[in-house]
Amino acid sequence: SQQGEEDPQALSIQEGENATMNCSYKTSINNLQWYRQNSGRGLVHLILIRSNEREKHSGRLRVTLDTSKKSSSLLITASRAADTASYFCATDAWTTDSWGKLQFGAGTQVVVTP
Amino acid sequence: GAGVSQSPSNKVTEKGKDVELRCDPISGHTALYWYRQSLGQGLEFLIYFQGNSAPDKSGLPSDRFSAERTGGSVSTLTIQRTQQEDSAVYLCASSADSGFATGELFFGEGSRLTVL
User: Fold this and answer.
1) Does A114 sit behind a cis peptide bond, omega within 30 degrees of 0 on the bond before it?
2) Of A100 and B77, more confident
3) Nearest-CA residue of chain B relative to A107?
4) Chain B CB within 8 Å of residue A111 CB
5) Chain B interface disruption, residue of A36, A43, A46, A104, most B CBs within 10 A
6) pLDDT at position A2 over 90
7) pLDDT digits over B2-61, tens only?
8) Is residue A110 helix, strand or coil?
9) Spatial distance between the Cα atoms of B18 and B78, rounded to a whole number of angstroms
């Protein structure tokens, strides 16, 4: 079963708007990562937030982490057509059942229209 | 090369044949991962290597799937007696050893397997 689940499954916005997607997970984590995947391509790392961090920024990206609620959010501000992609969260649990295993959610498909 | 390299990029095979998928990680990366992604789906964890050993093989779907890594570098994922449900994109990723937590993964472009 997947550790992380993204919400919504799909998101359609216009250029200039902000896009927010959420990720919920089940077990305690060491860190949480967000990745982006353009259609038919490999995944590209966007940002990593550690379990003792609450917020992190990178360019137009803002990630929050609430370990008490086991959830994270990714905000893309001032979206561009080039931001059209699928976005995945991934968690690193390092439990006896998942040692060294980075588990991915099902992803949020974002479409940004000009 | 500078990134993770996977080959072949596309493979079409007949049901029942064996296939081998290869992954060349970034030089110096000790951790190597295999994932499977079906059309429009998320990533399914298959196996993880730390050096040449595989601490976690729990994601391999059946005993038809096996993987090895030699010299702490190149890895091969082998699927024996392929079935149509094996059709997917097989993604490889590598990561520098960051201690007790998984760091950033660098992905290859994947090997698209189609079983007829």
Assistant:
1) no
2) B77
3) B42
4) no
5) A43
6) no
7) 899 999 999 999 999 999 999 999 999 988 999 999 987 889 999 988 888 887 788 899
8) strand
9) 7
Is residue A72's pLDDT more than 90?
Answer: yes
Q: What is the pLDDT of residues A28-47, one digit of tens each?
A: 888 899 999 998 788 999 99
- Contact: B103, A48; criterion CB under 8 Å: yes
Residue partners of B3: CB distance under 8 A and separation at least 6: B26, B106, B108
Question: Does A62 score more than 60 pLDDT?
Answer: yes
Residues β-bridged to residue B91: B35
**Interatomic CA distance for residues A87 and A5, integer angstroms:** 11
Top pLDDT among A21 and A99 is at A21
Say whether residue A42 is in contact with chain B using an 8 A CB cutoff. Answer: yes
Model pLDDT, residue A1: 43
d(CA B72, CA B74): 7
Is B30 in CB contact (< 8 Å) with chain A? no
Residues in contact with A87: Cβ distance below 8 Å, sequence separation at least 6, in sequence order: A6, A21, A34, A35, A36, A37, A46, A74, A107, A108, A110
**Ramachandran category for residue B110: left, alpha or beta (phi over 0 → left; psi -120 to 50 → alpha):** left
Q: Where are the alpha helices (DSSP H) in A1-114?
A: none
The structure tokens 């998320």 sit at B42
